[in-house]
Each structure stands twice: as C-alpha cells, then as structure tokens.
Amino acid sequence: MKYERRLPLVWSDGMAYVVGLTATDGCLYTGLRKINFKSADRDLVATYLVVLGRTNTIKTKPTRTGGVVHFTEFGDARFYRWLLSIGLTPRKSLTLGGIDAPDEFLAPLMRGLFEGDGNLQNFVHHPTPSTYPDYAYERLWLYFNSASRAHVDWLQARARTAFSVHGYVETRPADETRHAFYRLKFGKRDSITLLRAMYPDTNVPMLRRKWVVWDDYRNRNGL
Predict the structure, then answer these.
(1) Which segments within 46-90 are labelled E, that is strand?
(2) For 94, how many CA atoms within 13 A lie in the half-sphere containing its CB?
(3) pLDDT class for 163, splitting at 50, 70, 90?
C-alpha cells in the first residue's frame, strides 16, 4: 500500500519519539481509528512521517490567529489500538496521564514530548542591576507543558527516578475563559542532565529549531 506504516508496533527509540509527539501534538479521532498530527513547524510533521515510515501528504490550513498550521492524518487501526494500550486516548489534552513506556525509552519519549509541547529558555539574568550591575549568571530552563496535571505529575516522577532530577510544577489557574495549565520546570543542572539524555548525538530525529538552543549553550560552555 502506498501509505503503509513501516515502523513496527513495538517500543524502540523511534517509536518512543513518535509517541511523545503524538501525546502532545497528535489527535486520535474517536471511532474512526484515524490519527492526526499537526504543528506550526512543517519540518516536525515531515520528521514524524519519516520516523513512522509513511509517505502521507502534509497539508496546511490557517489558524484563527492568522497563522498557519501543518498537518497530516491517516487511518491505521493497529497503530491506533496500540496507542490506546499504552495510555493515549481521544480528547487527551485534559485527561492524559502516564504513558506505559519502558525506562530504556524514556529519554526519546521525553524528546518527543518536549519538541511537541515544551520549550527551552536560555538567557543571562541580572538579579540586582541597580546594586550590582556587573553581577549576572546564565539561565537554562527546560519546560514540559500540559493541560493535564496527572501527566506532568507522572513525568516529574518518572524523570526523578530515571535521571535523578527534581523539577517542580508551575500552575496557571483556570478562569472563565480557559482551563488550568501546568508546566514542569527544570533548573540548569537538571536541564543539562535531561538534554544530554534526550539528544545523545546529532543523528536522532529532532526539531532543529529547539535543539539549536541546547547546542549553542553546550558549545559555549564546553559541555
């Protein structure tokens, strides 16, 4: 078949990365056994298809804010059922909890979660500019974002066990126009630990726009 998936339905580095992307920017259509993946980054949609071994078309549609989003969608009943078996669900944004991934594939899973719906901040901080204008230090903060508290709690616990890192959860409370929103934040030392694990070399599938922030930091600091 023209659009047949070639990635086997077993845990691997590639599958873990795809699962992370699907858990953040993907959608499982209820009853249709169809999967949609979308991103503002066309390169990420292309990488998603390449890792899956699919040749489906990448389409574009406008957003309500005047931008564009790139997406692909396909029917794959076996993949759909496998995703359900490991913890993904339709309408998962508010209900996603843990993902049943083996420890050895947690790092590429986290890379997918980060590239789908995380961010990395790197900047120089001047905490007391009026008193000590020359005192500054460099920040590196890694975030994983979700509308599901159960998911960020699960990720925090898994990362602590696997990598001995200790992030903390920041909350944006709900109001009349939006649901509560959570982000799991890691400081500089823990961010370095996780980024080293998530990007063990330059050949792993990645969204380069996010990776270059880490690559620039590690090159400047001799890591």
Answers:
(1) 59-62, 68-75
(2) 5
(3) very high
pLDDT at 27 > cutoff 60: yes
pLDDT at 1: 47
User: Which strands make up the sheet holding 181-186, listed edge to edge?
Assistant: 118-125, 137-146, 181-186, 168-172
Distance CA 33, CA 55 (A): 18
Number of neighbouring beta carbons within 10 Å of residue 139: 13
Cα–Cα distance for residue pair 184/52, rounded to 1 Å: 28
Residue 39 CA to its chain's centroid (Å): 11
The residues pairing with 34 across neighbouring beta strands, listed in sequence order, are: 29, 75
C-alpha–C-alpha distance, residues 42 and 46, integer Å: 6
Q: How many CB atoms lie within 10 A of CB 157?
A: 11
Looking at the DSSP bridge assignments, the partners of residue 37 are: 26, 72
- Mean pLDDT across 71-79: 94
Residue type, 140: L
Report the alpha-carbon distance of residue 64 to residue 171 in Å, rounded. Answer: 26
Distance separating alpha carbons of residues 99 and 106, to the nearest angstrom: 10
The CA distances from residue 168 to 80, 131, 142, 157, 184, in Å, are 32, 30, 11, 10, 6
Q: Closest Cα to residue 120, out of 133, 110, 108? A: 110
Lowest mean pLDDT of 44-58, 123-137, 174-188, 198-212, name the range: 123-137
